[in-house]
Design goal:
The complex is a heterodimer. By secondary structure, chain A is an alpha/beta fold. Chain A folds into five domains: 4-128, Rossmann fold (3-Layer(aba) Sandwich); 142-234 and 317-332 and 500-567, FAD/NAD(P)-binding domain (3-Layer(bba) Sandwich); 248-305, no CATH class; 335-498, FAD/NAD(P)-binding domain, CATH 3.50.50; 579-646, Alpha-Beta Plaits (2-Layer Sandwich). In chain A, strands 10-7-6-18-29 form a five-stranded parallel sheet. Chain A has a five-stranded parallel sheet with strand order 20-27-21-22-23. In chain A, helix 5 (108-128) packs antiparallel against helix 18 (650-661) and helix 6 (150-161) packs parallel to helix 15. Chain B is of the alpha/beta class. Chain B has two domains: 2-120, Up-down Bundle (Glutathione S-transferase Yfyf (Class Pi), Chain A, domain 2), CATH 1.20.1050; 134-255, 3-Layer(aba) Sandwich (Rossmann fold). Chain B has helices at 16-28, 57-69, 78-93, 95-105, 120-128, 130-136, 158-161, 171-178, 197-200, 202-218, 229-238, 248-255, and strands at 2-6, 32-35, 73-75, 117-119, 145-148, 182-184, 223-226, 245-247. In chain B, strand 1 (2-6), helix 1 (16-28) and strand 2 (32-35) form a beta-alpha-beta unit. Chain B starts with a strand and ends in a 6-residue tail after the last helix. Classes of the chains: A alpha/beta, B alpha/beta. The A-B interface holds A 340-343, 345, 347-348, 396, 398, 462-467, 472 and B 158, 165, 167-168, 185-188, 191, 215, 218.
Chain lengths: 662, 261
């Protein structure tokens, strides 16, 4: 018979305002096996924990029930306290009377009755708890960073700085990401390339960092500390270790009409190309969609002129298997496709551009060498209209319901820089709200309005109509309450941002969860913002939500510190609440193996001594406790009831149900 | 397949082609439009006054009749569609309006918005399917550049009409593709033609209509199609651009080979 202590927490007024905690403690004191029952204002505080420890010693408790917040919050706190007082940490049960009771009910009588029932269920479970001992598994001291933008770069540099090996997998031929396409960065207006490219070089020169560019993750198995990842290194038809990056081939290739993705299709590149001058690795790549040699077998100019003999038309995709202790997702974002927003005439006029395209137009390395010229006729625009929230904060179903967060600031930057360089240009910005939370952000926006004379107009643009060489912008000024018609030379659309398309299949491979917008979800929105709920998977940058560069870099470093905290450990304590097969009951049907999302179940042939002293060889399920995550899917799937989850056995759960229904 | 059909007054007078070709094309597609009995004028415009019940009662009568027959109610005129669909929405979601209308009507079974109101274009898209329609086309209008003109009543208010994205629609463009022609995208396809203002001041209606026609002509259109008799009137009578404007049902009948008697 267990000797159980019950500890009811007030959580300040969080619980005590809706649940009569004294009444709960009193009611539970009469339950079978309960030898001590009390309540306290903050059970998780040091004083509260000491109450539990003292009670364990004084009353010789063998089991503890804490009626408090969700076990996700403080189960570990209370397990640790009990373990210090000498009882097995798995003899602690939490009755969640906050999230599942006080926060969702208003009526005190009902909430108190429910809290008592939840407490009774936990007591019933503790009666059947058995001490569990956690095993350990070794940690592979290497990290994988998926995505080589500023987020991935910062995370990799920080991890390497702590002395651990890091691999970066980047799907494009170079690292650098979106930041490499940006001209200047708010709010200080330093040049993006000047602060990014040195970091790219640091990555390339760091002996602990290995870049797999033009590569993708194609499979992930294993678990925290022991991931095995298959990396697909796409054929670039150039030997990476031989190419010197001289760029001769990119000048001589006769296929000149390939849209240049780095400049968002606003100019052309060759079929063999280096994305931009500061690319890392600075190695040429052949685009198989456009290369005449690869498509028809005729040409071979690049091979003939390459003095380093780096061209290899027969290169094949290569698959590399590597082991990692931790994985960081840094897959970033993209602006949305504007096909559902043609009222802004994006498909009808080349002078309607996205903000990222505008960024390239103003960049010295861009298609106009940094001169502000309209794409249609190369003339200098004298009136520019910026439209914010194109697809952001959109509840019509065409766009995204969330705020893309970065657009207010980069639009202020574009407006200000335009006025600075071309004071003869009138600049209008249409906005729903201007949102500038961030250090020195609001000051920056106010400078655009007050010092640079940018016309900020609260209201949305309804239509952009190309007429002759003008763009007729119909809009409303909500503060003045009037219709506006502006004849503009250029319109710039601040398109909403969305997670990169590669994120969803990756999330499936990692069994990491995502929200409805395909942003990765964090383990806790406030307290564990850089960890995915899947152990060993960390989040860096805009893959978790819209972010500007300062915030991305902070999060990237935070993710790195979490990875370092994991990699410094030689062994990890495993979760002992894993599945176990009762071999005598198992009939080897494979149902459990099919539902196991972690590949933790295998089948073995085992000898059994029969009652008549003969030996029978039977196929039975065997669980690898290091791989099992304790999800319980197999215990439900097992038709013979042979599978059980330690700490959450079928008996324990039935006892809880009985206690609730009694 | 049989559906209830609400033609509306204009389709019996000025806009006979919209009605005639619509019926013929529907037959060719295996759908019989059964004109509901005793229909009356829809009221012509949906009044915003929330206590204005009388002008909406004829819509409620038509809706109730379709319900009693267990059929969807098909409309063709943009204005009728707008009034009937919005009245239906009010009957379903505005309890006060619904109670008052039912008190006036004294129907055997009170009407509470059960009927599905479907515009002819929606029927082509969702019941027939544009892919199926394309297969039934015998005279594809190959190479013809056609501008779709939506006007304002067909799509707005967007949440009630729920036909298409009101700012960036595609249903008529998809229809144009289905009959083998080439849609022309131009910015003013969902702007107002001037509507009833033509009774007050023709110059305003002319300005609005010409803006639409000019924009379509510049974009390379050879023809404009619409579903609205008032739009057609304004574009033809008040517009001065030399660009034919016809009902979409006329082209549909032509493509299906049922235009001539």
């Amino acid at each position: 018979m267990q000797k159980i202590g019950v500890f009811v927490c007030w959580c300040g007024s969080n619980i005590a305002a809706t649940v009569d905690v004294k009444r709960v403690a009193e009611a539970l004191s009469h339950e079978n096996g309960v030898v001590y029952s009390t309540d306290y204002q903050y059970m998780c505080s040091e004083a509260g924990q000491n109450m539990i420890k003292d009670a364990i010693k004084t009353h010789g408790l063998t089991g503890v029930v804490v009626c408090s917040c969700s076990p996700r919050m403080h189960e570990n706190t209370f397990r640790k306290a009990c373990s210090l007082a000498g009882i097995n940490p798995y003899m602690v049960e939490i009755a969640n009377i906050r999230e599942q009771c006080s926060w969702i009910h208003k009526d005190m009588v009902q909430a108190t009755a429910k809290a008592i029932i939840l407490g009774k269920a936990a007591i019933a479970k503790v009666h059947l708890n058995a001490p569990l001992t956690a095993g350990t598994s070794p940690v592979k001291k290497r990290a994988l960073v998926i995505g080589g933008g500023i987020a991935g770069i910062q995370t990799a540099l920080d991890i390497a700085d702590a002395g651990f090996e890091v691999d970066i997998v980047e799907k494009k031929p170079t690292i650098g990401g979106k930041m490499s396409q940006i001209d200047k960065t708010f709010p200080t207006l330093d040049c993006a390339a000047c602060i990014l490219t040195p970091k790219m070089v640091d990555v390339a020169q760091n002996e602990l960092i290995n870049i797999y560019s033009y590569s993708e993750v194609s499979a992930v198995t294993g678990f925290v500390g022991n991931f095995t990842v298959t990396i697909k290194k796409k054929a670039r038809y150039v030997k990476e270790d031989v190419c010197t990056g001289c760029g001769l081939c990119t000048e001589k290739c006769p296929q000149k009409k390939v849209p240049n993705e780095f400049n968002l299709g606003m100019d052309n590149r060759r079929a063999i190309y280096i994305p931009f001058a500061q690319a890392v690795p600075k190695v040429a790549t052949i685009d198989p969609e456009y290369c005449t040699k690869l498509k028809t077998g005729k040409c071979g100019v690049c091979e003939k002129i390459c003095t380093a003999k780096a061209i290899d038309y027969n290169q094949k995709d290569e698959f590399i298997e590597r082991e990692y202790g931790a994985i960081v997702v840094a897959t970033g974002f993209n602006p949305i496709d504007l096909k559902d927003f043609d009222e802004y005439a994006y498909s009808q006029s080349p002078d309607v551009v996205t903000s990222l395209e505008f960024e390239r137009i103003t960049n010295a390395a861009g298609p106009t060498a940094g001169k502000l010229l309209r794409p249609s006729d190369g003339k200098h625009p004298h009136t520019i209209v910026f439209v914010q929230c194109v697809g952001s904060r959109d509840t019509s179903g065409c766009g995204k319901p969330y705020c893309s967060k970065i657009c207010c600031m980069y639009t202020a930057k574009h407006a200000m820089l335009t006025r600075e360089k071309y004071p003869d240009t009138e600049v209008y910005v249409f906005y729903i709200d201007v949102r500038t939370p961030g250090k020195s952000f609001d000051e920056f926006y106010r400078r655009a309005v007050e010092e640079y004379g940018v016309h900020y107009i609260k209201g949305m643009v309804g239509k952009v109509a190309p007429e002759g060489d003008k763009l007729m912008v119909q809009a409303s000024d909500l503060l003045a309450g009037e219709q506006l018609n502006i004849a503009a030379d250029m319109v710039v659309l601040a398109a909403a941002i969305e997670p990169d398309k590669s994120a969803r299949p990756l999330a499936t491979m990692l069994t990491a969860s995502m929200d409805t917008n395909d942003f990765f979800t964090e383990a806790h929105p406030k307290l564990r913002p850089v960890e995915s709920p899947t152990a060993g998977v960390f989040l860096s940058g805009a893959c978790q939500g819209p972010k500007d560069i300062p915030e991305t870099v902070s999060q990237a470093s935070a993710a790195a510190s979490k990875v370092i905290g994991l990699l410094v450990k030689d062994h990890l304590t495993c979760n002992p609440c894993v599945a176990e097969s009762n071999e005598l009951m198992c009939n080897g049907c494979s149902s459990c193996e099919k539902v196991c999302p972690y590949g933790a179940i295998t089948y073995i042939d085992k000898e059994f001594r029969m009652p008549d002293r003969t030996t029978l060889v039977r196929r039975v399920a065997s669980v690898n406790p290091a791989v099992c995550q304790g999800c319980g899917a197999c215990t439900v799937a097992c038709p013979s009831g042979a599978m059980d989850l330690k700490g959450f056995s079928n008996n324990q759960i039935m006892a809880e149900v009985d206690a609730i229904c009694k | 397949m049989k559906v209830s059909y609400y033609p509306g007054c204009t389709l019996k007078t000025k806009a006979k082609e919209l009605d005639k070709y619509g019926r013929r094309a529907a037959e060719a597609l295996g759908i019989t439009l059964e004109e509901i009995e005793n229909w009356q004028c829809c009221g012509g415009a949906f009044t915003s006054a929330s206590d204005e019940i009388a002008t909406k009662l004829s819509s409620v009568r038509a809706l109730a009749e379709a319900r009693d027959k267990g059929q969807d109610l098909i409309t063709l005129c943009s204005a009728c569609h707008n009034v009937i669909k919005r009245t239906n929405d009010a009957m379903a979601n505005n309890a006060d309006f619904s109670m008052k209308a039912n008190n006036y009507m004294k129907l055997d079974t009170p009407y509470t918005g059960e009927t599905k109101v479907i515009h002819y274009l929606e029927m082509l898209r969702d019941t027939v399917g544009f892919d199926e329609l394309a297969k039934k086309v015998v005279n594809p209008l190959k190479g013809k550049k056609i501008a779709a003109y939506y006007g304002c009543l067909l799509l707005r208010p967007g949440k009630v009409m729920a036909m298409d994205n009101p700012e960036n629609p595609r249903i008529i463009e998809d229809f144009i593709k289905a009959i083998g022609a080439e849609p022309v995208i131009y910015p003013y396809r969902n702007e107002c033609c001037g509507g009833y203002i033509t009774l007050e001041d023709k110059t305003i209606a002319a300005k609005k209509s010409n803006k639409v026609l000019h924009s379509a002509a510049v974009a390379g259109a050879e023809m404009v199609i619409t579903a609205c008799p008032l739009c057609l009137y304004n574009l033809q009578k008040n517009g001065t651009e030399d660009l034919p404007v016809v009902y979409f049902t006329e082209l549909l009948a032509e493509a299906l080979g049922v235009k001539e008697d």
